[in-house]
Design brief:
Number of strands: 17
Bound molecules: adenosine-5'-diphosphate, magnesium ion
CATH architecture of the largest domain: 2-Layer Sandwich
Radius of gyration: 21 Å
CATH class of the largest domain: Alpha Beta
CATH topology of the largest domain: D-amino Acid Aminotransferase, Chain A, domain 1
CATH superfamily of the largest domain: ATP-grasp fold, B domain
Structural class: alpha+beta
Shape: globular
Number of domains: 3
Distance between the termini: 47 Å
């Protein structure tokens, strides 16, 4: 508890863009997010006042970080489970708790549990040898190999078309699971929040568009998603949040197939598929995550407009117009674009920000948001005035 304000101190392990945007929400609630930053240049470390420098794999650093925090939560899932258990045993309020978080840390644990819960999942198996993969494929290539831990943005996911390709991944030595390659119609995300009290709240289900395993675009609500499927996705996410005792935001990444919904993976923190909620919903996922981990009542999740599109800004090739100049042009040409920059150095392919446009027509907001993001990435394309 902050002695001046009497308001709680929330500690977030990790100081990337999610922590940066959570800090932004914390300010409005009278708080100042404490962050554990591995690097003083991390996005949230640049803007928060209460920065502890230290690594998330260092138990001593985690301990001193947690001292004085009402609750410790996460910007990523890379804290070793044994450290989380140690902190919880010492009385630190770790949320989501270690036993819940494990399902977002380890894809094998997640698949095992969801299968046991009867949640629709791709056909999958744990594998340790290339023969296991061959037996799983049964001649039906390609299959999808996934590192059980540590992957993000498609790093740690390999679509392999043969025994030889599978062998190359196995030889790298990372623990793997194998999945059928799902013939998906599109990808959806159901984001919900749950508090210790047990209150749950679900945002409208969104469509996510990925390129090379990276989410590039989010459409809210998912266009032409039938009411029945939308409600089924929300109910599924709430069921998972409750069964796994998740506290905070839970994002359930889904595949829509001709036979219905299939769960891809889980994230227990604010998620890229929820960035649209900053301008597009009554309560943003960042505010909601704070409310949930503090066991405050949750906020309304209703969308504020019929159509919202969020497009990620990935770092482009160096050269050309300066970033500042691109931003200047963009703000002039598209006054409706809401730009979020994460304070990161530009590297090709790295998520450095996002743009959201809110409006009445999905095709229109999508065109505006895409143009704006592309312009920031490479300074080319159409950035004509669109009043
Ligand atoms: N079994 C699968 N079948 C088809 N596509 C898949 C499958 N698993 C993953 N993908 C594709 O790869 C992307 C990244 O996989 P995911 O498991 O979500 O990894 P990450 O942890 O990197 O986000 C997914 O969003 C999807 O586009
Ligand atoms: Mg994913």
């Amino acid at each position: 508890m902050d002695s001046r304000t009497g308001l709680p101190v929330v500690g977030m392990v990790g100081a990337g863009q999610l922590a940066r945007m959570t800090h932004q929400a914390a300010i409005a609630l009278g708080q100042s997010l404490r962050v554990l930053a591995a690097d003083p240049d991390d996005g949230a470390a640049l803007v928060a006042a209460d920065v502890h420098l230290g690594h998330h794999t260092d138990l001593a650093a985690l301990r001193s970080f947690a001292a004085g925090c009402e609750v410790v939560t996460f910007d990523h899932e890379h804290v070793p489970t044994e450290h989380l258990r140690a902190l919880a045993a010492e009385g630190v309020n770790v949320l989501p708790g270690p036993d819940a978080l494990l399902h977002a840390q380890d894809k094998q644990v997640m698949r095992t549990r969801l299968t046991a819960l009867g949640v629709p999942s791709p056909r999958w198996a744990p594998v340790s040898t290339v023969e296991d993969i061959g037996a799983f494929a049964g001649g039906e290539w390609p299959v999808v190999l996934k590192a059980t831990r540590g992957g993000y943005d498609g790093r740690g996911v390999w679509v392999v078309g043969s025994m030889a390709e599978a062998a190359a991944v196995v030889d790298s030595g990372v623990p793997l699971i194998v999945e059928e390659r799902v013939r998906l119609v599109r990808e959806l995300s159901a984001v919900v929040a749950r508090s210790p009290y047990g209150q749950v709240a679900a945002w409208p289900v969104v469509e996510t568009v990925q390129e090379d395993g990276i989410c590039v675009e989010v459409l809210a609500p998912a266009p032409d998603l039938g009411e029945e499927l939308a409600v089924a996705a929300q109910e599924l996410a709430i069921r998972i949040a409750t069964a796994l005792d998740v506290v905070g935001v839970l994002a359930v990444e889904l595949f829509e197939t001709s036979a219905g919904l299939v769960v891809n993976e889980l994230a227990m923190r604010p998620h890229n598929s929820g960035h649209w909620t900053i301008e597009g919903a009554v309560t943003s996922q960042f505010e909601q995550h704070l409310r949930a981990v503090l066991d405050y009542p949750l906020g309304a999740t209703t969308a504020v407009a019929p159509a919202v599109c969020m497009v990620n800004v990935l770092g482009g090739e160096p050269g050309g117009m300066s970033f500042d100049e691109r931003l200047h042009h963009l703000l002039a040409a598209e006054p409706r674009a809401k730009v979020h920059l994460y304070g990161k150095a530009v590297r090709p392919g790295r998520k450095i920000g996002h743009v959201t446009v809110v409006g009445d027509d999905m095709a229109d907001v999508r065109r505006r948001a895409r143009n704006a993001a592309r312009w920031l990435v490479d300074g080319t394309g159409e950035m004509e005035e669109s009043a």
